[in-house]
Amino acid sequence: MVLKANHKLMKYYSNMMNQNQQKFSGYLGAFAMVILLGLSACFNDDQYAQVTPIAYVSFYHGSPQTENLTITVDNRIYNHQTFEFGSYLDYGNFYTGNRQFSFKPAQAANSLLDTALMLKPDIAYSVFLTDSEQEVAPLVVQDSLYRPGEGKALLRLVHLSPDTPTVNLGLHEEDDFLFEELGFGEVTSYQNVTPGNLHLTLKTSAEEEAVVSASNVSLSAGRIYTLVVRGYQEPGSANNKSLSLQLIRNYPNF
Question: Where are the alpha helices (H) located in 44-189, listed in sequence order?
Answer without folding.
Answer: none
